[in-house]
Amino acid sequence: MEPREKRLVFPFSAIVGQEKAKLALLCVAVNPLIGGVLLKGDKGTGKSTLVRALANVLPEIEVVDGCPFNCNPRNPLEMCDSCYERYENGEELPIAKRKMRVVDLPLSVTIDRLVGTVDVERFLKEGRKALQPGILAEANRNVLYIDEVNLLDDYIADSLLDAAAMGWNTIEREGISFRHPARFILVGSMNPEEGELRPQILDRFGLCVEVSAPMNPEERIEIVRRVEEFHEDPISFYKKFESEEKKLTERVVKAREILPKVEISDDLLKLLAETVVNLGIKTNRAEIATIKTAKAIAALNGRRRVSLEDLEKAMELALPHRLRDKPFQKPPQMRPPKPKDDKEHNHDHKHDHKHEHKKEEKNERRNQGSQSQGIGNLEQNFRSSEAKIPRIESKNFDGSEFTGYRSSRDVSVTVVNFPKGIPVSYVPPKGEIRDVDFYNSVICAVLNGKKPPIRLDLNDLRVRVRKAKAPTLWVLLLDSSGSMAVQKRISIAKGIAEKLVENGYIKKSKMALIVAKGNRAEIFVPPTKNYWEVLEKIESVPTGGRTPLSSALYNLLLLAERERRKDKSLKVRAFLITDGKANVPLFGKRIKDEIIELAKALRKKGIELNIYDTRGRGINPGISYVPVLKEVANAKVYRT
């Protein structure tokens, strides 16, 4: 069965291009302690194919026969508590050989399924507490693959990456205390269009590679040919690359043997440390992952000493995703390290830096000149300016049902009898039973006088109460009418909008952008987690024309209604950035009457409205509808 399984997987050596991704995957195959690989790229670029193919070239491993944790029988430091106890008692552990495999982590996984929980069957039959191993147990000494890792719930990602960093999974729950090794090759893939990873989670991946489709027509033709040939006759296609696959396997085996003997010079260590400091990278994982990767590259090439070229390749894999320590911060340009005695290179670098700096100053002056010349035109384009925004306090989401989470969580919801979130309690079920808390159900049965073997009935059953992250949508309503050009209010407004996008990114909320200018408001960006797209649209919005405030509020209501049809639990927050003026009716009524009606609808629909009033605190002639929205929609108003 094993050979056929191999043939049905697209061969690793048959994949065209993607050399960086291949190297990164081979490095973590040699040393899983690097911390795993994150493959970032558009859909259809071969990320999943690379991971599936990797398992094919990995060697067989020796495991303790019958152990559910795939413990290493030759190394007591890689044994679970049970195997270690047997080893300490002098028992000869039975050995079996097993092919490494790819273990998939579904996005819907619960914390119990991930880390392990009580073995309910043994508890019911014998009344003894025993562990039911989770996915981390299956993944030990295998490949753990998370597709769309950026969509994984935070608390699942935190537990997973902690285990990956420590190499151990410790279980302390329901009276069970147990630990087992969790040394897997962690591979995640994601499409940046569907949202970025939190920096804290991104840093936990040792290596990160951008995977993109080749733009060379010849390479693309070759990809099509190979895929078609594989689909027509996978067995014959695999045989064509069988020798190359065996060579890769032998290369990995040899690299693992060499790895403990690979050394790196103090000069290269110093060069790496200086480069990391100069790039402003704050985490120590940068150096650790780079050194481990450089040693793995040297071992893959059969060498016992790390070269400058090895270090350069390792830095390209381990550093780029750590260059930003704030959301959407533009990372410094990464240059390959050079020895200090290269004076000519240093002189050229300084000259290039000065030239680039002068060029930027010249472009800035040109842009400022073009903006001043545009005043008086129908439309102008203003850049955003730095803006501070106060902490946003939720009004509609507080109370007994919703409470604010810390960290990246925006709004939490208490869910009963639904397998999503962190378990916090248990209750008797009402209606359909979906999320049974077996352990506490058994406890209730025992308290009711039942003895093993226990048969549960409806009176014994308990379902879990969990805290889960409620889905949220943040809608930015940007007033970009002609009145916002006065005193460059639109620049401040754009600055506020960009800060809100950064906050939404941290909270992992979907974002949408509605722009009000001219005769009607328009949805510039529909709900998305592609925060870069929202930022780019904000920066490119022109300013000028009339103020269709009613149209913006109406679009907000329609957008919220449409998104709630997809998910009834969706919470909507709206952020209106405006000077409060309006001069375009929506339905032909008086503008004030329209705004009052729309404001009532917002409050009725539970849409939280926050208003950033760009008029400042001085004298502002003209009518502002901000006070009306504050009173009728119960909006929170901030003065900029």
UniProtKB/TrEMBL annotation:
Cited InterPro entries: AAA+_ATPase, ChlI/MoxR_AAA_lid, Mg-chelatase_DI-like, Mg_chelatse_chII-like_cat_dom, P-loop_NTPase, VWF_A, vWFA_dom_sf
Region of interest (Disordered), ranges: 320-390
Keywords: ATP-binding, Nucleotide-binding
Record-annotated VWFA domain positions: 473-609
UniProt keyword Nucleotide-binding present: yes
Similarity-based family: Belongs to the Mg-chelatase subunits D/I family.
Protein name: Magnesium chelatase subunit Chll
Species of provenance: Thermococcus paralvinellae
UniProt lineage: Archaea, Methanobacteriati, Methanobacteriota, Thermococci, Thermococcales
